[in-house]
Amino acid sequence: MAETYKFISDINVRQQKWTSEVIVAEKYVAKTSHNQRTIYQNMVLIDMQGNKVQCALYNYDITAFKNTLIWSNTYLISNATVKFTDPKRVAAIGPIQWTINGKTKVQAVEEDNRAFLFSTYQIVSFAVLHLHMDNYNEIDILGVVIDVLPKKIVQTKYNNESCIQELVLVNEK
Q1: Taking the CB of residue 9, how many other CB atoms lie within 10 A of it?
Q2: Are 94 and 85 in contact (CB under 8 A)?
Q3: Residue 164 backbone class (left: φ over 0; alpha: ψ -120 to 50; beta: rest)
Q4: The whole model's pTM is what?
Q5: Angle at CA 38, nearest 5°, toward 102 and 84?
Q6: What is the distance between the terminal CA atoms of the chain, rounded to a whole angstrom?
Q7: What is the per-residue pLDDT across 115-146, written as a single tens digit (0 to 9) for each?
Q8: What's the DSSP call for residue 27?
């Protein structure tokens, strides 16, 4: 008998002993917290119904899962810590978030779900990029990189240093 998996929307804060089949939809660079005591890495997972959940790894768990949680790959994830999202977080995806740690079981699935993942993107045309300036909404764009400018170290509003790199993109026009 085939095992049944829970969709992201069916997993709640107090639930235990669950497994969900998910795709790594977004994986961000590890960062240092404002208090400089914690390193964290965020990612977004999506299930085959299109439900998304923000996921976080901290400190040594980032290294432990570095070669396991790869963008666009599919995994069975069991028993991540599920908690309510901090309402102060600007980029929160939904009411809950998962934390993957040493107690979380992560198993790669040999399925190519990239076509489904790509179908969830809502590509924004270059012609309307100006409408998205000065807000915190993430958007998807599609273009060709024609130049990569040198990396720069900038000071953040929290007095941390951050490395940025600008890219020059062109579209079909």
Answers
A1: 15
A2: yes
A3: beta
A4: 0.78
A5: 65
A6: 52
A7: 888 888 888 888 888 888 887 777 888 888 89
A8: E
